[in-house]
Amino acid sequence: MANRLPWLLFSLPAGVVTDRFDRRKIVASMDAFRFVLTLVVGLVVFAGRAGLATPQDVAAGTAAPSPNATAFLILLYAASLLFGLAEVLRDNAAQTLMPAVVDRDDLETANGRLWGAEMVMNSFVGPPVGGLLIAVGFAVPFFVDAGTFAFSGALIFLIAGSFRPAGTSAAKVNWRAEIGDGVRWLWNHRLLRSMALILGAMNAMFSMAYATYVLFVQEILELEAAQFGLLMTAGALGGVLGSLLAARLSSVLGRGTSLFATLLGTAVTLAVTGATSSAVVVWAMFVASSFLVVVWNVITVSLRQTIIPDGLLGRVNSVYRMLAWGAMPVGLAIGGIVVSWTEGVAGRELGLRMPFYVAAAVFVILFVIALPRLGSRQIESARREVDAAGSQEG
Predict the structure, then answer these.
(1) Spatial contact of 92 and 314, defined as CB atoms under 8 Å apart
(2) What confidence tier does 67 reach under pLDDT thresholds 50, 70, 90?
(3) Could you give the residue range(s) of every CATH 1.20.1250.20 domain in the chain?
(4) What's the rounded Cα separation, in Å, for the pair 268 and 287?
(5) Residue 300 has pLDDT above 70, yes or no
(6) Closest CA to 37 of 70, 81, 2
(7) Rounded to two decimals, what is the model's pTM?
(8) What is the CA radius of gyration of the chain?
């Protein structure tokens, strides 16, 4: 919660900052900040590891909670909060930086490659490397992670040019007015407003369905911890495939049709997951749903980068993402309630399956809502308006 709370509290101010300063410097500075923060945590772990009792040790009665352990937990919460703040500012600036370094027609391909790289490193490379590094020393992963932040920041600093939005002034920030500009622009743009609200509902449903996923895996699929790890590889595989094929799919089917396919296809994967007791089927559904999620993200992020004016991109993006990410904790809470209520009425098994059924039904409703709003005609019309405005300025 400490890590995700900044998305709700800091997204809107982060948008103002992104539209005021050089976006390249924001990205690089946040990487440098995270380098220092990770290094500090690593040094604390290295210096105090011998005095830290694990929760398992305390629960087993083989160790007592120590002042060092309490102080370390406080440090972890504080570090998680600071990481979240840096992530909000860094990621918002990075999305607004992309259109300045990539031609508009290449945005879907570039975003797909970016998603693919993140999926590979986060899900395929990171976990096994982390396990090996922990075997070397408990603090080693922190030091290596700090080094990757430093390397990333250095690469971003090497990008030539200025990436401060045109027309920005040195006048005192009027936070309320500038945030209001971003909120009004998004709300008055029917296409992006619909996308933001639909995405918020999608994220809430995903969070609801997967809030008790580990219990579903343990009790319905009857998998152990190692098997659960193998099951989670499906998300990485689907995400990588989506990142590689999203631009091609968008070109073949059209952007609107591709978005409709993600909504209807996700409804199917959720319904099948809830109905089956086969781990193989669930793995296949997880591959498919992760593929569809990345297709949605590649198309919609590229579209936002294309049609939002550069001077408002940071603020509008921040409002959009606040609506999308802010729905997640709501969905998590609903997921727990759905399981508890259904279990009391119809038993444990149906209780654990019910969130998937509810989410699937909502995705069908979202598909119906999206049909008149997110079609290829509406998307291409919005892109043509940008082209027309650019021609008039030229």
Answers:
(1) yes
(2) low
(3) 182-386
(4) 13
(5) yes
(6) 81
(7) 0.81
(8) 22
